Structure prediction request, 336 residues.
Amino acid sequence: MSISIADLIDLLGGADAAATLTGVSPDAIRKWRTSGAIPSRHWPAICAATGLNMGDLPRSAVESDIPPGATAALVLADGSVFWGRGLGAHGTSAPAELCFNTGMTGYQETLTDPSYAGQIITFTFPHIGNTGANEEDCEAAQVFARGLVLKEDITAPSNYRATTDLDIWLKRMNTPGISGVDTRALTLRIRDLGAPSAVLSFPADGKFDLASLAATAAAWSGLNGLDLAAEVSCTQPYEWTGGTWSWAHGFATPETRHTIVAVDYGAKRNILRSLASAGCRVIVVPAASTAAEILRHEPDGVFLSNGPGDPAATAAYAVPAIQGVMEAGVPIFGIC
Prediction:
C-alpha cells in the first residue's frame, strides 16, 4: 500500500525530523513535497526509520531520480540504487546474491563458472574486457552469473586469442551488466554488511520501476536452501576427453590410465580438463545419479565436484549416492 510523500514526512516526525534523519535542509524537505520525488540515496534511511519497504513508498518518488547518462541500475533489497551505464543484453536479471570477485583476469571463465549461478558479480579490477572473449575460455556452454558490475566501460580487446569483444559476447549470452559503478564502495559494503540480494536492470526503453525492482530483490529468499546444483548439472552422462591448454598445442588429448566418474554438481570444464590431463578417462554424470548409476561405469575413483547454491539442499540425493559408493569401497575425492 503506497502512501503520499506528505504522509511519509509526517511518519518521520515532521519536516525537521525528516531533515535531521536524511542530513538535508528543511528547504529540501519542502522540495520533496512540491516535486513529489525523494532522491533514491535517502530511501534506505527512510525505510529503516519507518519500517516501510520499497513497495510502500510513493510511486512518483521512485520514478523521477535518474541521473543524466544513466541507462542501468543495480537495486539492492534495502532500496539502495547504484546507477550506471548498461552493457551486454537489455533486460532485468532475476533476483540474485550480490558478490565480488578480485581476479585481474579470467572474467570470461568466472562468468561461465556454474558456481556463480544465482549471483551478480562485482569485479573489483577496474578494466574488465581488455582481452575480449572467445569460445575456448568458457567454463560452460552458457553464462551462469545473473549479471556483472564494472567500474569502467568495456574497451576494444587487445589479445591475439580474442574472437569478439566482451560486450558483444554478453549480448549473445543474454547477460546484462552495468559499468560506471563505484565497485570499491560496493565491495566494502558487501564485506562489512554481507552479500545482499539485488536486481540488475538495463531496460531497452530506459524506464525504471525502482520500487518494484527493490521489492523483487527484498522478496527473494536467497541461496540458503536453494538446490542450484540440480539446475546447472548435466542431464545425461557423457565422456570428457580434452586436456588442459598449452601455448604450443592448444587443448591436449592425453592417454588414459584410470577411469574416474565425475559427479557434476556444477563442475567447470577446467576441472575436467585437469582430470583428463592427469591420465584419467572422465565420465561425467548428473548430480542426482544414484550409486548404482555411478558404479555401473566401473570407476577407479569417484570425483565430487563443487557447485552453486546450498550444499545441504542436495542431501536428499547426494548423501545416499555417496554412501553407496563408499560401501562399494571405491575411492572418493572432491573439490571445494
In short: The CA atoms of residues 62 and 210 lie 6 Å apart. The chain has three domains: 5-57, 72-222, 230-334. Confidence is low (pLDDT under 50) at residues 60-64.
